[in-house]
Amino acid sequence: MDRETFEARRAAGGFLESAEFFGHLYGTPIPDPPPGKDVVLEIDLQGARQVIQSNPDVLLVLLLPPSVEQQTERLRGRGDEEEEVVRRIAKGIEEERLGRSLTRHVVVNSDRDQAVAQVAGILEGHRKQRGDLPTGADLVGDPDDGRGG
After folding, report:
1. Predicted pLDDT at 138
2. What whole-number distance in Å separates Cα of residue 13 and Cα of residue 34?
3. What is the average pLDDT value for the chain, to the nearest integer?
4. Please, which residues have CB within 8 angstroms of residue 93's CB and are 6 or more apart in sequence?
5. Distance, CA of 52 to CA of 129 (rounded, Å)
6. Average pLDDT of 69-79?
7. 57: how many CB neighbours lie within 10 A of its CB?
8. Looking at the 3D structure of the chain, how many domains does it have?
9. Which of 34, 67, 85, 100 has minimal Cβ neighbours within 10 Å of its Cβ?
10. Which residue has the higher pLDDT, 61 or 148?
């Protein structure tokens, strides 16, 4: 989509959250899940704040790396320059502080399956509070549905 179309869609409220990053526009279209389904988004803190602003009852889960040391090794393993690794780690520490101020739900992603199970448990608890309890298979973008969501 070109910039003019994106800007018009954003002005019309067509995105749940949007941002400009290094001159590129990004946005999450307003989701329209089937009844009884949940929407799971993987977004940054800027986007999370926008979502909370328009949907104050949203469930937000902060995913964290197991440790600063492991995150540093992950970044180095990707081939990032040392200066970028240092910058990203410093930013991550600040993002964690801000993320913790937005939610009480924090999951440390040291094991993918365990992290998915923890997020699913948090979602189930949230559904119980809402009085809405579809099964775990009712997640839109469920990681086990082959779409990698």
Report:
1. 45
2. 21
3. 85
4. 68
5. 18
6. 92
7. 8
8. 1
9. 34
10. 61
Interval 1-27: pLDDT, tens: 899 999 999 999 999 999 887 788 999
| CATH classification at residue 90 | 3.40.50.300
Q: By residue range, what is the domain housing residue 95?
A: 58-137
According to the per-residue pLDDT averaged within each range, which of 15-19, 21-25, 129-133, 142-146 is highest?
A: 15-19
22's torsion region: left (phi>0), alpha (psi -120 to 50) or beta?
left
* CA–CA gap between residue 62 and residue 103 (Å, rounded): 7
3-state secondary structure of 120: helix
93 in Cβ contact with 39 (< 8 Å): no
Query: Is 101 within the bounds of a domain?
Result: yes
**Which residues touch 140 (CB under 8 Å, ≥6 apart)?**
31, 33, 34, 37, 38, 39, 40, 149
- In this structure, is residue 36 part of a structural domain? no
Q: Is residue 63 part of a domain?
A: yes
CA-to-CA dists, residue 93 to 96, 109, 121, 138, angstroms: 5, 15, 26, 34
Token code pair at residue 49? 């704040």
Say if 129 falls within a structural domain. Answer: yes
Contacts of residue 50, Cβ cutoff 8 Å, sequence gap at least 6: 16, 17, 18
